[in-house]
């Protein structure tokens, strides 16, 4: 993309909450530092990649030993930050488009990808940045709780899923545990920057799955994400956080 095609702060997408974009933009320079402000995301990334790879292999009936399960397919990572998920998707063989509301994060993402000779179509903006386009795989991890209108956001994500394609999302549940662990304790202890989470914006699994179903996709899996003494693990409990996978038939 050329500079002229980049959405700027003066032409915001309606899905974007300006304060949220500004908050994450300030953290952009530390995004790839595993000990910096995004340390928790670095701890979470291997688990969500494990979940995502399982969903991909099952959906397209692939060999889980293959290195490029997304070869020949288009992938969208919505709310990509500085590319923690977009880069692995590119390594899996996908033609990746990645979008984020914070221009600072996209700038860091582009430089990081270039340094690793990875091709990712990074764009500044919201879901509107890919209006009219469709993708075989759409991911949006820990994002829906930060947007202006979750219903409209999910509908737009669903519209970007091609026939036979897959949508994978993750988000915190709105429970006493998430309030304590992700807002009060994590922010107070400095594990995530203050102001990162607004507990009132969290979605329960039945709320998110209803939005996805209303948007015309079939929900095929809900898996909990738990945090224990050894870090994040996939499990049956959705009390803290969870993944949702849906498909377009």
UniProtKB/TrEMBL annotation:
<keyword id="KW-0808">Transferase</keyword>
<dbReference type="Pfam" id="PF13489">
    <property type="entry name" value="Methyltransf_23"/>
</dbReference>
<comment type="function">
    <text>O-methyltransferase that catalyzes the 2 O-methylation steps in the ubiquinone biosynthetic pathway.</text>
</comment>
<protein>
    <recommendedName>
        <fullName>Ubiquinone biosynthesis O-methyltransferase</fullName>
        <ecNumber>2.1.1.222</ecNumber>
        <ecNumber>2.1.1.64</ecNumber>
    </recommendedName>
</protein>
<dbReference type="GO" id="GO:0102208">
    <property type="term" value="F:2-polyprenyl-6-hydroxyphenol methylase activity"/>
</dbReference>
<dbReference type="GO" id="GO:0032259">
    <property type="term" value="P:methylation"/>
</dbReference>
<feature type="binding site">
    <location>
        <position position="79"/>
    </location>
    <ligand>
        <name>S-adenosyl-L-methionine</name>
    </ligand>
</feature>
<dbReference type="InterPro" id="IPR029063">
    <property type="entry name" value="SAM-dependent_MTases_sf"/>
</dbReference>
<feature type="binding site">
    <location>
        <position position="100"/>
    </location>
    <ligand>
        <name>S-adenosyl-L-methionine</name>
    </ligand>
</feature>
<comment type="similarity">
    <text>Belongs to the methyltransferase superfamily. UbiG/COQ3 family.</text>
</comment>
<feature type="binding site">
    <location>
        <position position="141"/>
    </location>
    <ligand>
        <name>S-adenosyl-L-methionine</name>
    </ligand>
</feature>
<keyword id="KW-0949">S-adenosyl-L-methionine</keyword>
<dbReference type="GO" id="GO:0010420">
    <property type="term" value="F:polyprenyldihydroxybenzoate methyltransferase activity"/>
</dbReference>
<feature type="binding site">
    <location>
        <position position="48"/>
    </location>
    <ligand>
        <name>S-adenosyl-L-methionine</name>
    </ligand>
</feature>
<comment type="pathway">
    <text>Cofactor biosynthesis; ubiquinone biosynthesis.</text>
</comment>
<dbReference type="InterPro" id="IPR010233">
    <property type="entry name" value="UbiG_MeTrfase"/>
</dbReference>
<keyword id="KW-0489">Methyltransferase</keyword>
<dbReference type="GO" id="GO:0061542">
    <property type="term" value="F:3-demethylubiquinol 3-O-methyltransferase activity"/>
</dbReference>
<keyword id="KW-0831">Ubiquinone biosynthesis</keyword>
């Amino acid at each position: 993309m050329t500079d002229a095609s980049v959405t700027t702060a003066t032409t915001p997408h309606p899905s974007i909450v300006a304060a949220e974009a500004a908050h994450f933009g300030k953290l952009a320079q530390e995004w790839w530092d595993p000990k910096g402000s995004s340390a928790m995301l670095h701890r979470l990334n291997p688990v969500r990649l494990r979940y995502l790879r399982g969903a991909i292999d099952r959906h397209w009936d692939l060999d889980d030993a293959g290195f490029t399960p997304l070869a020949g397919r288009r992938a969208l990572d919505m709310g990509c930050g500085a590319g923690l998920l977009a880069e692995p998707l590119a390594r899996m063989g996908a033609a990746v488009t990645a979008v984020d509301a914070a221009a600072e994060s996209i700038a860091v993402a582009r430089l990081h990808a270039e340094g690793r000779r990875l091709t990712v179509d990074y764009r500044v903006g919201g879901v509107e940045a890919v209006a009219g386009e469709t993708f075989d795989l759409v991911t949006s991890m820990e994002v829906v709780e930060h947007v202006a209108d979750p219903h409209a956001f999910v509908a737009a994500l669903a519209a970007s899923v091609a026939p036979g394609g897959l949508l994978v999302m993750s988000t915190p549940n709105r429970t006493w545990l998430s309030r304590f662990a992700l807002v009060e304790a994590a922010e107070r202890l400095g594990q995530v920057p203050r102001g990162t989470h607004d507990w009132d914006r969290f979605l329960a699994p039945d709320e998110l799955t209803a939005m996805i179903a209303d948007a015309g996709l079939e929900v095929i899996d809900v898996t909990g994400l738990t945090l224990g003494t050894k870090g994040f693990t996939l499990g049956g409990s959705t009390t803290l956080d969870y993944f949702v996978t849906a498909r377009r038939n």
